[in-house]
Amino acid sequence: MVIRRLYQFCASHVVRNCSSLKCAQNIHGHNYEVEVFIETNHLDSASMALDFGLMQQEMQVFIESFDHAHHFWDKESDEFQRFIENHCVRYVKCSFNLSAESYALMFLYYLTRILQKSVFSNNEGELKISSVRVHETKNGYAESFLKDLENPHFKSLVHQNCVSFSQGIQKLWHDKDFFNKIISDEKQCFFHAKPLHQIP
Length: 200
Hints:
Blueprint: E1 2-13, H1 21-25, E2 28-40, H2 52-55, H3 58-64, E3 69-73, H4 78-87, E4 91-94, H5 100-116, E5 118-119, E6 127-137, E7 140-145, H6 152-155, E8 163-165, H7 167-170, H8 178-183, E9 190-191
Parallel strand pairs: 1-3, 3-4, 5-9
Antiparallel strand pairs: 1-2, 2-6, 4-8, 6-7
Helix pairs in contact: 3-5
């Protein structure tokens, strides 16, 4: 059984080294759509794979952290990076080039960590994120699969500290330790209370 949740955010970036010079040489923006597919081996007490309301918590906070922000590769010139840091309140510094493919791998990596660190209390099955799709436009998307995180060609792109968020983004988190919990070695960080069962 697979469920799918759609998230959206708006952001700007530059995709260096690509064939399209418009993308490679200019700051430009997209209305991104992120589709998250979660797989389970059995349904919970409400006959759901995972309540969508639970996906509106840590997963949504993480994805919304990229909204209305400029994202930049940490290989940009020092001058460019200083300009963004001095003139943007919301920015995300990334250790990878900012293609849809890289975003799909990055979201899969961090959302998988969130899911693995979450404790659910409604008799959920074995949950895993089977894939993540990232749309920059309506015309196409990049999709990453769990096995891609083990592919040596992709594995080096995403890792524990491949993104860092500006203080302007972090100050809107209710839990100031939110990202540290995601990247920490702690196994259980996000706890979801047992729901009221109306029918035994």
